[in-house]
Every structure is written in C-alpha cells, then in structure tokens.
Amino acid sequence: MSSLTVRIARADHAALVELSRATGKSMSATLSDAIQQQKRKHILESMNAEYAELRKDPKAWKEVLAERALWDTTLSDGLT
Predict the structure, then answer these.
(1) CA-closest candidate to residue 54, choices 46, 44, 45, 64
(2) pTM assigned to the model
C-alpha cells in the first residue's frame, strides 16, 4: 500500500493515538475507519436533505410514494 503524508493538529494526533490504542488497531486503520464513517455520514445527510426537498413538492412526493408501493409488492411475489 502506498502512503502519503497529511498534516493534522497535535490534538487530533493525540486523539488518534488514544483511539488506536483503545481499539487495538493501527493508527492508519483507525484513521481509515474514521474517514469511512465520515463519508457514510455525509452521504446520509445529503440524501436526507434531498428527500426533504422532494417532500416540499407534493406531486413529486406522491410519485415517490407510489413507486415505493409498487416495489413493496415485489416482496410478496414468492421469489427469493
């Protein structure tokens, strides 16, 4: 695996060291986990904001609900 150098604040480095020791993971793995968690959080927050905008349009939201209802029927089609 190739690596790069990234500058972080001393306090953040100390927190990374502490979390790494507490979890028993390397600092690199701990940092990677934190980045992935932040990425997932950003995606979910973005999706929630988009759905909030969609809900403001009653016609568009009704279409979304109708499409969901169609998808719900596939769960009872007996196929796995």
Answers:
(1) 64
(2) 0.73
